[in-house]
Design goal:
By secondary structure, the chain is of the alpha/beta class. It is built from twelve helices and 23 strands. Helix 1 crosses helix 10. The chain binds flavin-adenine dinucleotide.
Length: 415
């Protein structure tokens, strides 16, 4: 380890490894280090399938040492603060490290205080999350005896915004094939106003919900979990609350303080999420506390030698590994342009992201889109398959194709 690097990368996750690998492929002499405390790199997109018992959790992990590209120094440590005016990072154990150029990709963190009762209940009994322990989700699904199976998500940006509904569809499919002992309601409750932001995909998903007989509750923002009594409480964000027959069917109650009480017999949720605190403390954040970058060049708005990508970045698109696949080449190209003092040659990121919406065992809708919720389906793929419909071929892509491409192409900087 040295005390100064030409290019320093914070985080050895999807974004950090892809940028490092692509930089090294471009010029193997570049002087690069990755700051990353974890021994393990996770392929998180497969956790949805793990939670439904159709993918082996162990296969989602690889030793970090096998992914750090050759010739890149791995500093096994955590950044505690960046001093961007002085071009240096402070670390937990390795002191200060200077850089000429910085790439910030530490992902996001879970805010377990964002919902009352969450930290006490998550991971125990029937309260589960594919975000934290997908093996536990699978146990909960198999042990479910009937009643309300509640799937929900918080009122913050989250990684893979589709993940909370994917596991709801898989559960509905599982319960159809393995009927629980008593009557079951599969509920998807979300703070959002629609099931999905891009119309073509939303139309298909509403059909999926109808076919499973699920209850879709928009404008429901979870605020408290009372696991002991099997209740989750929601703040209703919609224009006007109609207490229709669904209230009776699901046992919903409006409390004196206006919150809605929903009984659950199993609960799956994504925890509230935020950028790591050091982003704000280092003066790298915008007013929402996510990292402030130009949404097209991914360059920091105040510090031109700093770039950000991945979940940490304040980008108005979905936080996914698929988005990073399009962000990493932009960061790499623009970094190299700056290093070579050719700023006119800046690449632009158009907000591409994609969400493989698994809608059941053997079925998937591939939602690809860019900024402003504009559909951006791959033209080649679209010649052979309508990716806005449920297809078996896209399921095969999710279960076999994408993991293969991730480990063998993306992590090697080849795509
Ligand atoms: P990460 O991959 O999370 O990596 C961040 C790294 O930074 C970690 O290794 C961490 O240890 C390190 N780090 C953190 N803090 C510090 C620090 N202070 N100093 C140094 N290092 C630090 N994406 C898809 O494309 N398709 C999907 O189907 C999909 N499904 C998903 C399902 C689930 C359940 C989940 C949880 C995620 C899913 N995603 C999916 C999202 C995808 O996994 C993430 O968007 C992607 O991994 C983000 O990459 P990243 O590099 O920003 O962060």
């Amino acid at each position: 380890m040295k005390q100064k690097y030409n290019i320093l990368i914070i985080g050895g996750g999807t974004g950090g490894i892809m940028v490092a690998a692509q930089l090294k492929n471009f010029d193997r002499h570049l002087d690069i280090a990755i700051l990353e405390p974890s021994e393990t790199h996770w392929y998180q997109p497969a956790w949805t399938l793990v939670g439904a018992g159709t993918f082996d959790y162990k296969k989602t992990a690889r030793p970090m040492k096998d992914l750090i590209p050759n010739g890149v120094d791995w500093i096994k440590d955590k950044v505690t603060l960046v001093a961007p005016d002085e071009n240096l990072c402070f670390t937990e154990h390795s002191g200060q490290i200077n850089y000429d150029y910085l790439v910030v990709a530490p992902g996001l963190v879970y805010n377990m205080d964002g919902i009352k009762g969450l930290k006490e209940s998550l991971g125990k009994g029937v309260v589960c999350s594919n975000y934290t322990d997908p093996n536990h989700t699978w146990e909960v699904l198999q042990n479910f005896k009937g009643g309300n199976a509640v799937f929900t998500q918080p009122n913050t940006p989250i990684k893979c915004g589709g993940a909370p509904q994917k596991i709801a569809y898989l559960a509905a499919d599982y319960f159809r094939k393995h009927p629980p002992l008593s009557k079951t309601n599969v509920i998807f409750a979300t703070p959002g106003s629609v099931i999905f932001g891009v119309k073509d995909f939303a139309a298909t998903l509403m059909k999926v919900i109808k076919n499973y007989g699920m209850d879709f509750l928009p404008f429901f923002s979870p605020v408290e979990i009372d696991a002991q009594n099997g209740h989750i409480y929601y703040q209703y964000l919609g224009p006007k609350l109609e207490e229709g027959p669904v209230f009776e069917k699901l046992g919903l109650k409006v409390m004196p303080d206006g919150r809605i009480q929903m009984p659950f017999d199993m609960l799956h949720l994504a925890p509230p999420q935020k950028a790591p605190d050091f982003i704000k403390e280092s003066g790298l954040a915008n007013e929402t506390n996510w990292m402030q970058v130009d949404i097209h060049t991914l360059q920091h708005m105040k510090y031109p030698n700093v770039f950000g990508l991945g979940d940490v970045a304040a980008l108005p698109t979905a936080k996914t590994g698929a988005a990073i696949r399009k962000q990493a080449p932009v960061v790499v190209k623009n970094l190299i342009s700056i290093i070579k003092k050719n700023k006119t040659d800046f690449a632009q990121y158009e907000g591409y992201s994609s969400c493989p919406l698994v809608t059941g065992y053997g079925k998937m809708v591939l939602a690809e889109f860019k900024y402003d919720n504009v559909r951006d389906s791959d033209p080649l793929l679209s010649k052979f398959v309508d990716t806005a419909e449920e297809t078996w071929s896209m399921w095969l892509l999710k279960k076999y194709g994408l993991p293969f491409l991730y480990w063998n192409q993306m992590m090697k900087g080849k795509m």
